[in-house]
C-alpha cells in the first residue's frame, strides 16, 4: 500500500466526519436549505477542521526539521524549549504593550521562540558525548525550566489564564472563523520547508558530510530554526501547544519511508493532520456534547507511542541521524 | 559516623533549630498568640516532614539507581501518585472521598502506590541498568504519561471533582492539609527509621550489583524494598505539598558535597537536614520578607532545573 494516497483518503474521510460532529444538532445534508446549518458549518465546523489539519501538518513538519537540526530522533518542537519561548515572547509583549497589534505579537512570539531554540541547540552542542538519549532529556528539562519562568511571570502579572491556554494542552473548541487564520502562516512556513527538503536531509548527515557536499550548514540551520519557531509560535498563539505530534509522526514515517525528505515530508504532513484530527474527533465524541481537548488525548497517546519507539528494536535500515 | 560528619550534622541541626525559632517567634506581636503559634507550628511541622521525606527518598533512590543525577520525581514517582489520587476520585467520587476518614484513606493510597512503584520501577531498574540514559528517558516520559492521564481523567470528571484533583496536581509549600499531618509525620518517621537501620546495607548496595551480591546482599529484594520506601516517602511529600521535580536533586547534591562520604549513616541525616533548612529558610524569606508565599516552589524548580542541566553538561549522568 502506498502511504500517500492511503493517508490522503483517510484525511478526506476524517475531515468529512469532522464536519458532521459537534455540539450543535444540525444536518450537514441540509446545509443549503437550512441557513442555521450553513452558518454553523461555515463559521465553526469548517474553520475548526481546517485549523486541526493545519496544526497537525505544520507541527509534524516542524518536528522533522528540529530533528534534522539536532540530529536526534527523540526531540520535537514541544521538548526543545520552542513552545515555552513563544509563550515568553507573548507574555513580554502583553506586559510591555497590552494594546499591541496582532502582527507584532506574532513577531515577538516567533523571535523569542527562535532565541530559546537556539539556546537549546547551544546546550546540545556542549553535551559531553554524543549520547543519543541525553539530548531529549536536556530538552525536556530546559523546557521545564523555561516553563517555570513563564509560570512565575504569569503569576506575578496575573496572566495565568493566558499561560494556561498557550502551554497546557492545546484544544480547538474555541476556533471559529476569524480566530484561526494565523495557522495558515504556520502551514505556509511548513510548505516553505519542502522546497529545501533535500538540504535538510543532507544536514542530517552531519556537519562534515554536509560541508563536503557544498552545503552552507549555517544558512540551512537558520532557515530550519525560523520555520520551527514560526510554526510553533503560531500554534501556541492560536490553539495552544499540542504535545508529541512533532516527535512521534516523523519517527513513524521515517520507519516506513526512510529519510528522503523530499518524498517523505508530504507524507509526514498528512500523517500529522490525520493523527491530530483523529484525536480531536475522539475528544469530541468521548463525552459528547462536552469535549476533551485534543492536546490531552495526544499527551496520553503520544507518550505511549514514544515509549514504544524508545524500546522497540531498531529498524533494519540504519537511520541517518541519531 | 566519623568526627567530621558528626560535627557537620550537629551544625546543621543547630542551624535548623535557629531557623525554626525564627519562624515561630519572628514578628509575634500582642494579639492572639496561641492561634498564631498554632498556625506556624503546623506549617513548620509540615515543611520539616516534607523536607525529610524528599531528602531521604532522593538519597535512597540515587543509591538504588547507582546514579547521582536521578531523583524519584524525575522518574515520575510524583506523577504516579497524582494519577492514583485522580483514580481514587474517579472510583469513589469526591463526596465519597471526603466522607472517608483521612488517615485510613491515606494509608490505602500509600499501599497502592508502593505496590505499583515497586512493580513498575523495579522492573525498569532491574532491567535497565545496562542502558542508563534510556532508562532515565523512559522514566521522564512515564511521568509525562501519568500527568497526561491524570489530565484526561480530570476532563472526564465533573468540574467539582476536577477541582479536588487539581488541588493536588501543583506544588505549593503554602497549602498544607492539616488533617493528614499527624499521619504523614508518623509514616515519614517510620520510613526514615527503617532507612537508618538499613544504612550499612545501603552502603553495600551502592557498590553496584555484582560486588553487593558477592558480599552476601540479597540484591533484588533490597532493590524492591528500597523502592518501596521511596514510594512511601514520595507519597507523603506529594500528598502534603504536591509534586516537586528538582528539589531532591539540590538536596542530594548538597548532602554529598557537604559530607564527602559515601556512608548512608551520614548522608541520610545530612540530606534531610539540608532540605529542612532550605525549605524553612526559603519559606520564611518569601513569606515574611518578600510577601510572596507562593513563589518558593517556582524558585526551587528553576534552580533545580538549572542544576540538572549543569550536571548533564558536566557529563555526570553516566
From TrEMBL, chain A:
Localization of this protein: Cell membrane
Domain of life: Bacteria
InterPro entries in the record: ABC_BtuC-like (IPR037294), ABC_transptr_permease_BtuC (IPR000522)
Membrane topology: Multi-pass membrane protein
Signal peptide span: 1-23
Main location per the UniProt record: membrane
Residue intervals passing through the bilayer: 46-69, 81-97, 103-122, 134-155, 175-195, 202-221, 227-253, 265-286, 292-310
Family: Belongs to the binding-protein-dependent transport system permease family. FecCD subfamily.
Protein name: Iron chelate uptake ABC transporter family permease subunit
Organism: Paracoccus marcusii
Organism ancestry: Bacteria, Pseudomonadati, Pseudomonadota, Alphaproteobacteria, Rhodobacterales
Automatic annotation (TrEMBL), chain B:
InterPro entries: ABC_BtuC-like (IPR037294), ABC_transptr_permease_BtuC (IPR000522)
Chief place where the protein resides: membrane
Keyword Membrane: yes
Pfam families: FecCD
Keyword field: Cell membrane, Membrane, Transmembrane, Transmembrane helix, Transport
Bilayer disposition of the protein: Multi-pass membrane protein
Transmembrane segments: 45-67, 79-100, 106-126, 135-157, 180-200, 212-234, 240-259, 266-286, 292-313
Compartments where found: Cell membrane
Keyword Transport: yes
Family from the record: Belongs to the binding-protein-dependent transport system permease family. FecCD subfamily.
Name the record gives this protein: Iron chelate uptake ABC transporter family permease subunit
Species of the source: Paracoccus marcusii
